[in-house]
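=== RUN LOG ===
request id: a7f3
mode: sequence -> structure
chains: 1
length: 776
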Amino acid sequence: MLSVPPPPVSTFLRRALAAALLAHAAAGAFALERFDDVRAAWRPSDIQVLDRAGEPLQRLRTDATVRRGRWVPLAEVSPALRTALVMSEDKRFWEHSGVDWRAVSAAAWANLWHTRTRGASTITMQLAGLLDEDLRRAGGGRSLGQKIDQAYTATQLERGWRKDQILEAYLNLVPFRGELVGIDALSRTLFGKAPHGLQAREAAVAAALVRAPNASPARVAQRACEVLRAMQPAGRSAGPPQASPRPLGGQRGHEVPSVGATFSDCAAVDMFTAAALQRRAFEASEGIAPHLARQALRAARETNAGGAPVPTELHTTLRAPLQRFALATLQRHLRELRDRNVEDGALVVLDNASGEVLAWVGSSGELSAAREVDAVLAPRQPGSTLKPLLYAQAIAERRLTAASLLEDSSAQIATPGGLYIPQNYDRRFKGPVSVRTALAASLNVPAVRTLVMVSPEGFARQLRAAGIALAQSGDYYGYSLALGSAEVTLLQLANAFRTLANGGRFSPTRVLPPAAGEAPAFAAALDPRAAFIVGDILSDANARVRTFGPDSVLGTRFWSAVKTGTSKDMRDNWAVGWSQRYTVGVWVGNAGGAPMWDVSGTSGAAPVWAELMRFLHAREPSRAPAPPPGLRQAAVRFGDWSGQPIEAARGEWFIAGTEQPLFALEGIAAGAGPAGEPPPARITAPADGTLLALDPDIPPRHQRVRFEADAAGAGAQWRISGHTVARGPRAQWLPWPGRHVVELADAQGRVLDSVRVEVRGAGVAPGRGGPPPATH
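=== RESULT ===
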């Protein structure tokens, strides 16, 4: 085909198009947006979540329909990209006034001869289409009226905006590949860097995507190769024209700035483009507080319901240095526990006075197979960590004092579902102990006996008052509620301990800063005197010696109160406690519920709790709270029938009116028998009428029945159906089916006590006329 160069645009054509623009504009004036308004209305597809001091914590995706980054000033866009874009889309951008008349005439001439050209749409005209939906290209292209409107709008933009503002807005509003809009989202997604760092090859690919966003990688690479050729020194620059001491061709010329690279062969560009288009470096969320960010966003949306949109920068109550330390400490400790089948963990730090969350780690991150699960809010069984609230309630109701004696021995409590037989963590019983020892040493049986006094439903009401919302009624859980059979969240549990730290006053936690003058709304949840006594017990290192030893990780150099807990089958391990200013809660376990191996109350969550407390109080003291009104401290002593003290004499705290000088087992004051002799021995386990069912799938040696007598049975002997099977206060019996009478006899054979038990199911047959021997 004969190639005929287009003639220069005629005066007639220019006047005709100008008249068309004026006539079309007369039908409806265009409301020109200001550049500052367009920039202010820009909303990224994610938000920046900041700590209380404005330090970034997390970037969080909030718009799933499109991907936009932040608004990038033109000065922060690389010269290579500006050059590539102008050379690709609008070579005379810096010269025309919105409409490139030379390109218009070339396009008209090409249409006449049915040839293909670049088109006459300038960057300014394209920006007009991005600002006004009515001017955007439809599936069949723009109509003549749309084209005239677009050209008119472009001329108006050129009159109201500077060239650099037009180019800046275009770079931020132009759609690229797929969901990507704006140069920030494109640069960070495909190239993993900010726009100011784009080099020539990357800039060429970006410019090629403007022309054909969804083209094949090969087509994009071909176009990028053409852009790279045009960007060579023989081409023209993307900067505004500069006066040249040596004009080119007698006209004003301008130098071409270096774009940081020279052209290479198209094969390399093709490989680079294919790799870039597959990359997704711009993660939906990144930072050190992903779970807290979601909670903060939810709280902000609830606060702004029906009002203003959530700001692109969201301030929270967190402390970034504390959050980083907490996350690193948890991950380091969990790595040390990997050989014990521990994968996940979570922690939360609260400010006692305000309820503000200072640190929130919802998972172990890269160590977890369920890193998206927020374990701060996941319901879990809390184990013994509910005991402080239970004893606080019993003390507040004057059922117990800190010096009251509870029996830590085998107990079989009748329930509608059968006998409930609580056990201690170490499977050993301590005999009579004070409430202080029972709570600090985390003994289970005394806690269950205390719940019997309070009642499960009464305790459930107390838990709800402290902010722990149970899924069922107290009667549903029964007496196992004392040992943490209900499910609670770490945030609820930590805030309940914060209630104890605040003298029994409850208020909700918060992750967003309060408004000016806003104060926490406290509500009375517990007697402040009982809360003080429980805190005093949990800070008593001597009282926890029986279980945790004299040099426990729970001890701190400053005042603190702490309680650990382990749920059934070692599935959850907790450490929750408070100091004068902070409450810290830690959970470790597995998100899938798998049991841990050989993790105790002091090897699981407690070390993380202790490290966090030391970090918080590295330069901040923590002093013991002052006792509230209505408390008295009195000297107490303890005794049993033998005259030996059960516990050492000490000073103890009492609610006024409940104090007494002596705490002893029943029968001490009046004497146990003639001439002050000790009472006869009694069987404490099993209970009379116990029904035992043998499981044929469990080896018989693992189904032994434990016999126990009180302290007076030291020299007694156990007999079953007339046969002596063991001696001493404790024994284990390998049962066989049938009804049996278990007798406790003294050394002379006199029966001191007896109970009846029935064994059902397949069992071990008695050998040679007698029962199998028992094992001590």
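=== NOTES ===
Residues 42 and 303 are 22 Å apart (CA to CA).
The two ends are 109 Å apart (CA to CA).
=== END ===
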